[in-house]
Amino acid sequence: MIRKQIEGSPSEAVVTAVAEALDVDECSLSPLYDTVDPDALNALLRPQRPDDGCVTFSWVGCTVSVDTDEVIVRRDQTAEMEEEINPPSDLTSQRELQERPAEDADSIDVLHIDDDPQFTDLVNDILEQIDPDIEVVTRNSVKEGLLHLESEDIDCVLSDYDMPDMDGLKFLEQMRARGLERPFVLLTGKGSEEIASEAISVGASDYFQKSGSIDQFEILANRIRNLVQKSRSEQRVQDVYEAIDVVDEGIGLIDADGRFVYVNQRYAEILGYDREEMTGRRWTILYEDEEERTVLEQEVFPNVPNMCSDGVWTGQTVKWRKDGSRVRTDHRLAYTRDGMMVCLLSNPTDVSHDYDGPVAEQV
Questions:
Q1: Is residue 299 part of a domain?
Q2: 187 and 222, same domain (yes or no)
């Protein structure tokens, strides 16, 4: 069961809660409002939430209850759940494929591993007809598949489980051991629930039961696209972290509990720590004196703006380094939309000897 407080639109809270309950991307649910009971949808889309009780309805395999201030989602264990989450024609129609934004229009290169050439030809032809952005390459053994993965840029891997040289799970282990972190979908036969469960536990992105149904292939195409979109988004985030690691400005992120969730190499160097030492610790390690902390909490933090609209707090602060010395830096602070504090440090100056100035000063 998932509970979400309603902080803005009730419909947005519903999508967030249902996506969490089903462990799918919110973007795969938003287009499905036409499958919600019309009366329930009208209630959700009102500017004000209903004061006359709870709205309850079934949607994409879940029972959804919307009260005045929270959403409660219970996942239904029904055989129709997969079809409801991924309605075949609605999400993969040619018109929608043409209307996808440029980011989603990138081709998706899929490697399909199966020792049955007739089955791979069938799957490949159908997937490419359903979604013209999907391009499938076939290899008929694990060995050939690994060689292809190491030499070509592949977005997603489809693999049969039952193959003569190596089963699909061992193939996945070989991939991960070689650092090949592609989305991986295991194809299983009927009655393979235990294998599918094991696949997820060892790191497969998803599993799919082999079927001759066109509807099922449309579900598979949609799964592939969602997995690749998620993988590409995660890679973009990783690229950003790698980029900020090489800048000359110290960058740190502090969560709502006051703990460092990330510092780049320069931030740690300025303060004399290893990065791993700072992650998870509170910002107070940099301000040993209780009076100094009080100045930050009462005079600085309340004046830190939201970076999305109001810019940043700019000033200078004096901090304690790990070795007991003191350093003054230019300091910029701002909150992200979700309450994370971004801290930027530059121009460090050692002030260990006889410093009696303010711990923080806005400029």
A1: yes
A2: yes
Residue in 51, 2, 69, 9 with CA at minimum distance from that of residue 33: 9
Lowest mean pLDDT among 18-32, 260-274, 285-299: 18-32
Specify the CATH number for the domain of residue 116: 3.40.50.2300
Q: Which amino acid is at 170?
A: K
Kindly state whether residues 92 and 230 are assigned to the same domain.
yes
User: Residue 343 pLDDT > 70, yes or no?
Assistant: yes
- Cα–Cα distance for residue pair 269/272, rounded to 1 Å: 5
> Domain boundary residue among 218, 243, 268?
243
Residues facing 108 on adjacent strands: 134
Is residue 68 located within the same domain as residue 103?
no
pLDDT tens, 283-325?
Answer: 999 998 899 999 999 999 888 887 555 678 999 999 999 999 9
Spatial distance between the Cα atoms of 140 and 284, rounded to a whole number of angstroms = 58
How many C-beta neighbours within 10 Å does residue 253 have? 17
The answer to whether 84 touches 98, Cβ cutoff 8 Å, is no
Q: Calculate the dihedral angle through the C-alpha atoms of 168, 171, 173, 175, rounding to the nearest 10 degrees.
A: -130
Cα distance between the two ends of the chain:
49
Same domain as 345, residue 264: yes
* Phi and psi angles of residue 267, each rounded to the nearest 5 degrees, phi first: -60, -45
* Mean pLDDT, range 203-227, rounded to an integer: 85
Q: What is the mean pLDDT of residues 170-195?
A: 84
